[in-house]
Design a protein that fits this description.
This protein is an alpha/beta fold and 286 residues long. It is 42% helix and 18% strand. This is Universal stress protein.
Length: 286
Amino acid sequence: MLSRIIAGVDGSAASLAAAQMAAVEAVASHRPLRLVHARLPVADYALLLPPGIAADTRAAGRTLVEAVRDALRRRHPDLEVCTVVAESTAAGALLRASRSAGLLVVGRSGLNTARRGPAGSTAARVAVRAACPVMVVGPVPPDRDEVVLGFDPEEPDAPSVPFAFAAAHWRGAGLRICCVRQFDSDQRPDDATARRAVHEAIAGWRATYADVPVAVDVLTGTDPVARLLDASHEAGLVVIGDRDLGVHPATAAPGHLAEVLVRNAASPVAVVRPPRRHARRVAALP
C-alpha cells in the first residue's frame, strides 16, 4: 500500500488550496489523507473563527482542521481522511509527519507572513528537510495540468523522474521534461545530443507510463533557476530533484534551486529527494 499523503492546514488561502490538491492526489493515487494543524495564537484564530471558539486555542484548532476535513469529504465522498492537531511549530509538526508519509503538501505562505518571516519561509524550510517528497502550493489553483520536470543529465536515476511520470499519469496530463544546459560563451551546446540522451535516460519510464505524452525541451542559458521559473508559468506542477540543476556547488548553497522555486514559481512545485536511511535524523527538529 502506498504511504499516506499529509497536508498542512492553518486556515490560510494557500493551506486550503494545498489541502484540496492533497485530496485530489490522494483520490487519484488511492491513498489516505491526513490533515496536520499546528496550534495557532488566539489572534490568528480570531481571524478565522467565531469569538467564543477562537478564545480556546485547543477547541479552535480542532474546529478549524475538522471543518477542512468535512469540506474535503463533501467534495470527495470516497476519500479516507483524518486530522491531527500538533502542539509545536508548523515546521516541526510537518517535519515529524513527513517521516511516515509518501507525500507532504503545504501552502506557499501561511497567516501573517509579514510578522513571522518572509513569504514561503516555512514551506522552503520544510521542502529541503522533509523525509518525503514535498509539494508546495500557492493560494490560487493552477489552471493548467501539464507537469514540468527539471531534468539533470548527471542524475538520470533521480526519484524525481518516476514521481513526475506518476503525477502526469494521475492527472491525465502531459509531461514536459526540461533539460537546462549551461555553456561557456565560446562553446555552443549540442542540443540534439542532449535531447537524445534524455530520451534514452527515460525510455524505461516511458514504457511504464505509455499513456503519458512526453515532450523534451533543451533549455540553454546561464541560469537554470530562471529557465524553470519561466517554465512554471505554463505548468500545473513543476517537479525538481534533490540537487541544483546545472548549478556548480561552489556557486550556490545546497537547496538554492528548491528555495527559489518554492518561493517564486507560478505553479505548485514538488521537491523530490532520494530516500534517506536516517530519515528521523534528517527531519530532526531544531
